[in-house]
Amino acid sequence: MDAPLIEFRNVSRIYGEGEAEVRALDGVSLTIAEGEFVAIMGPSGSGKSTAMNIIGCLDRPSAGDYLFNGVEVGQVSQDARALLRRHYLGFVFQGFNLLSRTSALENVELPMIYKGLPRAERLVRARAALEKVGLAGREAHQPSQLSGGQQQRVAIARALAGDPLVILADEPTGNLDTHRSREIMELLVALNREGITIVMVTHEEDMAEFATRLIVFVDGRVSKDERKAGAA
């Protein structure tokens, strides 16, 4: 049997010491298979953001093991984690995180510069990614010339252009109205159907409904883990 794409083995994340100790994660074990669309929910302080940060190699466990594609990466060096982020993970944030005076095309190009790809290849990939998210013809537009939904599409295109195994979406609809939120979720669903694994943190139950699996954290532990009927 193939190894899960993402695996936590009894992962804990502890901040502070003594009376100030906080167990953001407390012995969490879970697996996420390639091709899943997982929504992660939970109240403030439940551990959902900490789990996402560990998956994204932005943080590391205090105890336990984090495996990515069968390889233990939770305790590897900072440089090694940066390489994993660069080559296998795409990030989408609530605040879009676009450079304000830079075109949509250049924003999408940026992560590929860090990967060392030649300019000609960057341009081809960036244009293809913008087309995939429905923004062909908007390549020269700066963020101020785009709606919130279009800015988030640029952010998704930026994540896609690096050809990631996983897209990590942190409250991707948090700054959008209902109509634009549904557009972004339908885009994520379409990308997932093409085979991209998506892990999304959200506080909105109606957005979580678009996922095929729901994981709920409470007090640093998984309190619910359920797949939709018919999901693999």
From TrEMBL:
Keywords: ATP-binding, Cell inner membrane, Cell membrane, Membrane, Nucleotide-binding, Transport. Residues 6-232 form the ABC transporter domain. One of its GO terms (molecular function) is ATP hydrolysis activity. The keyword Magnesium does not apply. The keyword Transit peptide does not apply. Pfam families: ABC_tran (PF00005). Transmembrane segments: none annotated. One of its GO terms (cellular component) is membrane protein complex. It comes from the Bacteria. InterPro entries: AAA+_ATPase, ABC_transporter-like_ATP-bd, ABC_transporter-like_CS, ABC_transpr_LolD-like, MacB-like_ATP-bd, P-loop_NTPase. Belongs to the ABC transporter superfamily. Macrolide exporter (TC 3.A.1.122) family. This is Putative ABC transport system ATP-binding protein. The lineage of its organism: Bacteria, Pseudomonadati, Pseudomonadota, Alphaproteobacteria, Rhodobacterales.
